[in-house]
């Protein structure tokens, strides 16, 4: 805006002026379209100043973010390929890595042929040049940043990591070239490197594809914080002489910190002198509004879960507060406020929690991991302990990790399903902890416990026989814990009960189970035994009733044919797939109606899409079992197929159907197109399906 004296943004309501005495300033006004800026703009001095009004729509869904605190355990939606991109990337690295001129070189792990890059990415020069000009402008405006940036680039070139290239020698329309922009990332508080230059191969070209999009995804080689806290730390010691040969930049704030002080680690504190973690809440003025309480609770962060039971109570309050629908700056309902005040009062009385970092014994001869899971209507969780034995037979058990979860709102999950989610969480966490420690310790055995006999019986059941919700989770648990021993533990001896029910802050440090597990497991003669599920398998819930089979005590029909025989007879009787499909759908409806009351029975005189689709899938499943039975059996056992199907990377979906694997799982294609059902080449059903599609497509 050039040469402006004053302006008005309408409307300027009497109500707005009444609430804000300074009517000369613009205000936010709420309208049916949302908030707008309205009022008078002050006078501007003459000149070439520009006035801009910028509005940004925030896409963050706070409601969804909050709900993540109490989502139930899920299973991956994508299947695991036998030959993943990570494996391909590693093989590519091994084949192409070489040492030349004292430098290692490896070719870029592309998913596509190198000559085809331009067709995928398009023009990258103009976009990279635009970014460079913006960076240049930023550097000119900040001499200090320019000096550091130039120093980095000069060093980069001196080290031989980069060199000048004459791009006029290349045909940018044909040659496989991608221009990578770079930018600065500043960390003024960093002890060593305050400026880091990032090469951004994620910049998308004119075809909305980047170089990163075309690269194979390799394995994660950096340890994350969860793994680091279980194994090692940055260089620090309780004896300063030990650090005399360690470079200053490798020490943990050595220039700024005396060893009597504590190093803070993500909400926990690490005391160098005692080599222990400590947890002591930083209490401020008591929070009284929804905003203050949620802000206070959100500051709790315990990555290893050493104070897990405290967070259960805090998250329960958070969930209740969130569902109360009170305003952000309003006081919670009386019952929630009372619960919060009791929790806060207990925090003020709580003694600092002190947990040893090094839980191994001197002269340790044996190390085992022992895990527990439990659930209640309010919460569920798991706790994992290291059970160590020294050369004298002395045993110790120490908490090394836990994970608490709050039961989802309005989930209507049965107690066995809640216990299943707790056991699944334990399986995931145990696999993670084992992978973190296996290179540091020689772990001889892993034992995992649940106080739910139903869940333990499910683990001994073929997932195909279970309903989908349970089957998907059991299958994953069986894969994760294939080499572990599942055992039963009584509820009153289960440390994970602290997570499902919560423990008052002032009672946690002295709790008999939480930090050291059940005392009877300290007995050198104690033997871990596998759960015997024979007593509960007869009345096991969530077991499928296979079509054609009836519940015990139900109506008795004079039908002795097995389902496979029924399907096979229908297939051979008709020369049309649609006819066979309709007949089988009516048979399935008849069987289904036998199990229902009259009011529940389906009585319409037409077949629904769902009924027809289920019939077709049953026909296809029959054919797959007929032609691919050995492949299906191997996949059910978690093994790779060895037949001609191996090249298709086949897998079994939730319905037990063989589908094509491959590497389209990250594409935007529908599931049925990414993972097509496999049909036998010589099957009569395949011929009928092809013939039917051919007829439908005829003009």
Write a structural description.
With 699 residues, this protein is an alpha+beta fold. It folds into five domains: 7-57, no CATH class; 85-214, no CATH class; 261-349, no CATH class; 359-539, Nucleotidyltransferase, domain 5 (2-Layer Sandwich); 563-697, no CATH class. The protein contains 21 helices and 18 strands. It has helices spanning 14-19, 62-67, 85-96, 117-121, 125-140, 143-158, 225-231, 290-298, 308-323, 334-349, 415-437, 453-458, 468-480, 497-501, 505-508, 563-573, 577-594, 609-627, 629-636, 671-674, 684-697; strands spanning 7-9, 27-31, 34-41, 98-100, 103-105, 182-186, 195-199, 262-265, 268-271, 276-279, 353-356, 364-375, 379-390, 395-406, 443-450, 485-488, 651-652, 658-659. A five-stranded mixed β-sheet has the order 14-13-12-15-16. A four-stranded antiparallel β-sheet has the order 8-9-10-11, with no helix packed on it. The chain has a three-stranded antiparallel β-sheet with strand order 1-3-2, with no helix packed on it. The chain is globular, with a radius of gyration of 32 Å.
Core attributes:
699 residues; 5 domains; five-stranded mixed beta sheet; 21 helices; disordered N terminus
């Amino acid at each position: 805006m050039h040469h402006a004296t004053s302006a008005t943004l309408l409307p300027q309501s009497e109500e707005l002026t009444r609430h804000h005495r300074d009517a000369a300033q613009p205000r936010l006004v709420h309208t049916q379209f949302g908030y707008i800026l309205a009022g008078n703009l002050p006078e501007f001095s003459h000149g070439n100043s520009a006035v801009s009004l910028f509005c940004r729509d925030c896409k963050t869904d706070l409601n969804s973010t909050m709900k993540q605190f109490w989502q139930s355990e899920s299973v991956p939606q994508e299947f695991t390929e036998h030959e993943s991109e990570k494996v391909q990337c590693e093989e590519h690295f091994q084949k192409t890595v070489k040492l030349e001129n004292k430098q290692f070189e490896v070719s870029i792990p592309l998913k596509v042929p190198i000559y085809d890059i331009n067709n995928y990415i398009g023009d990258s020069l103009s976009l990279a040049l635009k970014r460079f000009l913006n960076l240049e402008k930023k550097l000119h405006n900040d001499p200090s940043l320019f000096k550091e940036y130039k120093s980095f680039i000069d060093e980069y070139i001196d080290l031989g990591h980069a060199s000048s290239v004459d791009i006029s020698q290349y045909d940018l329309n044909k040659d496989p070239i991608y221009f990578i922009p770079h930018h600065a990332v500043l960390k003024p508080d960093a002890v060593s490197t305050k400026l880091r230059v990032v090469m951004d191969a994620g910049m998308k070209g004119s075809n909305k594809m980047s170089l990163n999009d075309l690269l194979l995804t390799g394995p994660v080689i950096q340890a994350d914080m969860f793994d680091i806290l279980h194994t090692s730390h940055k260089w620090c010691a309780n004896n300063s002489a030990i650090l005399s040969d360690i470079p200053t930049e490798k020490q943990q704030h050595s220039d700024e910190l005396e060893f009597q002080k504590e190093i803070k680690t993500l909400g926990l504190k690490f005391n160098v002198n005692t080599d222990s973690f400590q947890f002591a809440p930083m209490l401020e003025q008591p929070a009284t509004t929804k905003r203050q309480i949620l802000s206070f609770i959100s500051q709790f962060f315990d990555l290893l879960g050493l104070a897990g039971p405290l967070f259960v109570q805090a998250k329960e309050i958070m969930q209740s507060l969130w569902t109360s629908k009170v305003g952000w700056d309003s006081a919670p309902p009386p019952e929630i406020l009372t619960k919060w005040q009791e929790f806060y009062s207990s925090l003020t009385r709580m003694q600092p929690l002190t947990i040893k970092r090094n839980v191994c014994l001197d002269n340790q001869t044996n190390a085992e991991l022992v895990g527990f899971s439990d659930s209640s209507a309010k919460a569920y969780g798991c706790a994992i302990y290291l059970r160590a034995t020294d050369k004298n037979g002395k045993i110790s058990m120490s908490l090394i990790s836990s994970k608490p979860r709050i039961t989802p709102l309005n989930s209507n999950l049965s107690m066995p399903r809640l216990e299943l989610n707790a056991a699944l969480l334990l399986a995931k966490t145990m696999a993670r902890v084992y992978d973190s420690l296996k290179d540091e310790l020689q772990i001889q055995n892993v034992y995992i416990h649940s106080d739910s006999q139903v869940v333990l019986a499910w683990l001994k059941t073929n997932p195909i026989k279970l309903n989908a919700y349970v089957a998907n989770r059991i299958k994953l648990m069986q894969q994760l814990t294939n080499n572990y021993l599942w055992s039963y533990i009584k509820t009153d001896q289960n440390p994970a009960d602290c997570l499902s029910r919560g423990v008052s802050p002032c009672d946690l440090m002295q709790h008999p189970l939480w930090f050291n597990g059940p005392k009877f497991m300290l007995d050198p003669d104690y033997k871990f035994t596998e759960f015997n599920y024979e007593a509960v398998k007869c009345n096991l819930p969530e077991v499928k009733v296979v079509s054609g089979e009836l519940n015990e005590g139900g109506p008795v029909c004079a039908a002795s044919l097995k389902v496979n025989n029924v399907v096979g007879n229908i297939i051979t009787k008709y020369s049309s797939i649609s006819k066979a499909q309709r007949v089988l759908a009516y048979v399935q409806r008849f069987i289904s109606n036998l199990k229902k009351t009259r009011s529940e029975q389906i009585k319409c005189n037409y077949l629904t899409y769902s009924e027809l689709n289920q019939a077709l899938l049953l026909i296809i499943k029959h054919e797959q079992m007929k032609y691919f039975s050995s492949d299906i059996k191997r996949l059910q056992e978690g093994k790779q197929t060895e037949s001609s199907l191996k090249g298709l990377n086949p897998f079994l979906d939730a319905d037990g159907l063989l589908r094509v694997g491959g590497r389209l799982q990250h594409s935007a294609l529908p599931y049925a197109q990414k993972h097509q059902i496999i049909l036998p080449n010589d099957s009569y059903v395949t011929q009928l399906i092809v013939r039917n599609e051919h007829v439908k497509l005829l003009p």
